[in-house]
Amino acid sequence: MGDQVTSAGTADDRKARFSRVYRSTRAEILAYLLRRAPQREDAADLLGEVYLAAWRRIDDVPEGDAARLWLYGVARRVLANSYRRQRTVRNVAGVLRAELIARDVAAIDTADAKIVAVHDALDALDADDRELLTLTAWEQLTPAEIAGMTGAAPGTVRVRLHRARARLRAELARRGVVVSEEPARLLAEVDRAG
């Protein structure tokens, strides 16, 4: 039972000591970090890391003004770690960016010629035709639903959709792609493939 009182007293003493160290050094350590942090908004997080280290090692924190100098050393290491982390993140991001670009280029290189041709043919159509075709193929909307969305009459949408499909078939034929299936089915396949 006496050990618990001593442990509790020690815990209270450690809390009180940490509080004194924090109050007496916080402004100077924060100023140090603000002047050196890669971005000023990072300083508060870095300050938290410094004092977390101080809390964990409160028994190692020297007394008096030496505590401030000790904390400057901790802040210096925290900043160095922060710079290292940021450099690592930039390097990893660069590697990932390069891999994604390479994968996309490889995907295009090995893509089915039909898919590329469909994308190109779709891009060659005017925006209204492209919208009608993709609304039916990709969003699975009916002519009546498209009419409700656009404010056009359902009959008008059906006629425009018929003409857009014919223009897509002609554009595909111009590119050497013979379409035996419904263009909407072909567009849905292209959407799934990429």
Describe the structure.
The chain is an all-alpha fold. It has two domains: 2-106, Orthogonal Bundle (Rna Polymerase Sigma Factor, Chain: A); 111-193, Arc Repressor Mutant, subunit A (Orthogonal Bundle), CATH 1.10.10.10. It has eight helices and no strands. Helix 1 runs antiparallel to helix 2, helix 2 (43-56) packs across helix 3 (65-110) and helix 5 (127-137) crosses helix 7. The longest helix is centred in the middle third of the chain and has 46 residues, at 65-110. The chain starts with a helix and ends with a helix.
Task: Give me some keywords for this one.
Rna Polymerase Sigma Factor, Chain: A; 81% helix; 0% strand
Structure classification:
mainly alpha
Task: Please work out how many helical segments DSSP would assign.
Answer: 8
Q: Would you identify the CATH architecture of the largest domain?
A: Orthogonal Bundle
Q: Under CATH, the topology of the largest domain is which? A: Rna Polymerase Sigma Factor, Chain: A
Q: Note the overall shape.
A: elongated
Rg: 33 Å
The N- to C-terminal Cα distance equals 70 Å
Domains (count): 2
Percent of residues in beta strands?
under 5%
Top CATH class of the largest domain: Mainly Alpha
Indicate the low-confidence ranges by residue numbers.
1-8
Q: Sketch the major β-sheet.
A: none
CATH superfamily of the largest domain: RNA polymerase sigma factor, region 2, helix turn helix motif
